[in-house]
Amino acid sequence: SHRLSPLQEELRPRLCCMKKGPNGYGFNLHSDKSRPGQYVRAVDPDSPAEAAGLAPHDRIIEVNGVCMEGKQHTDVVAAIKAGGDETRLLVVDILTDEFFKKCKVVPSEKHLAGPLPEPVANGDIGKENGGEPRSNSVSESPSSPRPLAVSPDSSETHSKPDAQEDDRRHSASGSLLDLNIPLAVAKERAHQKRTSKRAPQMDWSKKNELFSNL
Fold it and tell me: How many of the other CB atoms lie within 10 Å of CB of 91?
């Protein structure tokens, strides 16, 4: 039972209180349309954010005591800026976030020291905890293309449709690849897009992601 206590402490939200330095708080806030929430992308070394214990991949739950669940990127940035030279961020790391989602509970400041919620029981929680990592690693290995590369010429014809399917999957998930144009042309176009736009941050925000330096 003594060994479990550090784990329980890890699966709690953390309260990071910080005062602005000469370069602001020193962290980068990031949101991605593919997953809800506002995440800390990077923390500057020796910054107020680092001293407060903020870490990359943390998800922001509350700003100055106000819950940010379901809020837009701009709302969260505005809430942080509204605090003036000080801010108080309630954050969860990836494991804590997963734990609270299994419990179907939104973390709050009462979980900093109070009792933690129990995962919602649906009979499969135990199996999920033990089996998920293993089943993932097993399902990844057959999909690796190594066997195709080793096989003799006769199977090369089979590997080509697979490659096309992969490409289709990539293009469906928003890749720049278009099957109707040669790869070299696609690469050149992508390169031209990159060089013609001086501000990649703006380019990203139009697509899927938003960044703010705070």
Answer: 25
